[in-house]
């Protein structure tokens, strides 16, 4: 095993370890908190993390052995089963990400009607469609004997058939990546743009409220005023940063592998083994990045992890200090709005408060 294979094997081991640990933490959080798993978004997150965990436990180790040994598993039929699992889980992961982005758009765009628009049962039906589409492509590839060991990617997945079957295989590969990559990417971009539009208008409204609160509180300490302005500046870029990370991670992880798969269909293209393995590692890295992008970095999951850690260490949470609570921007703005008259009606203010609470829960 040369230097290139050693580096690629080390990268794959790191991706494997992070994917196992992070997805296991997401599943533990959902199992520990009934509030997380009873939501529609919780059902989608459990499906995504479970698929990533199966991919890391049942597929990545055999690719690692292929990188180190340069040959497929010796057990008869094992490579076909692994290839079936690889095709199914990769397509299901991309469709699950699209479903999560649609769920986020519904939660942010229609906060007052979100609970009635997408219930856990509806999320289950949506996942059933994703599973059905992934299963159709996997069964078709298995029935046509297109699953096996690909030396260019050192993995058990789709492999090039003999010349007479190349046109059918090319049509199948193009359809698979159109439905499993292009369609989820289009849904992700469309819903993310709509979420960004709603978040930008929400930030503009919050900026107006913050500036009014700062003008009314004339005796406010300068350090608190400075902190309010810093939070206002961070809030403007928070939604853009999160949306950019989700789209960039999807493209960086899946695009090199999809482009390489489509390029190898050309008769004059020979895929370099190092590049093929690297593109496969990037596709695997989506299983390690998604738990942080959609779950573990959110406030609700951080709170559940903190409760689990305190319970494990048998510690009680310390009460928040008066100084920190007095510096809380949200509570300060709410107190100002309660004490000062506002030209808007009570009905509109209640809708705005419920909208803001729903936006905070989604982020």
From TrEMBL:
Residues 343-363 have a biased composition (Polar residues). GO terms for molecular function: G protein-coupled receptor activity. GO terms for cellular component: plasma membrane. It is found in: Cell membrane. Residues 338-363 are annotated as: Disordered. It is a multi-pass membrane protein. One of its GO terms (biological process) is adenylate cyclase-activating G protein-coupled receptor signaling pathway. The keyword Kinase does not apply. PROSITE patterns: G_PROTEIN_RECEP_F1_2 (PS50262). Pfam families: 7tm_1. InterPro entries: GPC_Orphan_Receptors, GPCR_Rhodpsn, GPCR_Rhodpsn_7TM. Keywords: Cell membrane, G-protein coupled receptor, Membrane, Receptor, Transducer, Transmembrane, Transmembrane helix. The chain crosses the membrane at residues 6-32, 44-68, 88-112, 124-149, 169-190, 243-259. Residues 22-294 form the G-protein coupled receptors family 1 profile domain. The keyword Membrane applies. This is G protein-coupled receptor 78. It comes from Macaca mulatta.
């Amino acid at each position: 095993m040369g230097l290139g294979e050693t580096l690629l094997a080390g990268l794959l081991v790191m991706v494997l370890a992070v994917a196992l640990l992070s997805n296991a933490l997401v599943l533990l959080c959902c199992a520990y908190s009934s509030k997380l798993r009873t939501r529609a978004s919780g059902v989608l997150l459990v499906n995504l993390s479970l698929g990533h965990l199966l991919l890391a436990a049942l597929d990545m180790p055999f690719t690692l052995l292929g990188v180190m040994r340069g040959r497929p598993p010796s057990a008869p039929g094992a490579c076909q089963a692994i290839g079936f699992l690889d095709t199914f889980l990769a397509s299901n992961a991309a469709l699950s990400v699209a479903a999560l982005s649609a769920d986020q758009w519904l939660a942010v765009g229609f906060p007052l009607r979100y609970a009635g628009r997408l219930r856990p049962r509806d999320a289950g039906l949506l996942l059933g469609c994703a599973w059905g589409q992934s299963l159709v492509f996997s069964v078709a590839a298995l029935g046509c004997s297109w699953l096996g060991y690909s030396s260019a990617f050192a993995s058990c997945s789709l492999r090039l058939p003999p010349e007479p079957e190349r046109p059918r295989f090319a049509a199948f590969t193009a359809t698979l990546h159109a439905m499993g990559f292009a369609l989820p990417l289009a849904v992700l971009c469309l819903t993310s743009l709509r979420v960004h539009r709603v978040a930008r208008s929400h930030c503009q409204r919050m900026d107006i409220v913050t500036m009014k609160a700062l003008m009314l509180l004339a005796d406010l300490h300068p350090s608190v005023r400075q902190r309010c302005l810093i939070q206002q500046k961070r809030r403007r870029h928070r939604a853009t940063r999160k949306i950019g990370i989700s789209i960039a991670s999807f493209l960086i992880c899946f695009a090199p592998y999809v482009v390489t798969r489509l390029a190898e269909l050309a008769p004059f293209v020979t895929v370099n083994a190092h590049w093929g393995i690297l593109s496969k590692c990037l596709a695997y890295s989506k299983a390690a990045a998604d738990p942080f992008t959609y779950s573990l970095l959110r406030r609700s999951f951080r709170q559940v992890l903190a409760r689990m850690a305190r319970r494990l260490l048998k510690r009680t949470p310390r009460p928040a200090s008066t100084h920190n609570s007095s510096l809380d921007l949200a509570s300060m703005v709410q107190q100002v709005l309660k004490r000062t008259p506002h030209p808007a009606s009570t009905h509109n203010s209640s809708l705005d408060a419920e909208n803001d609470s729903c936006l905070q829960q989604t982020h």
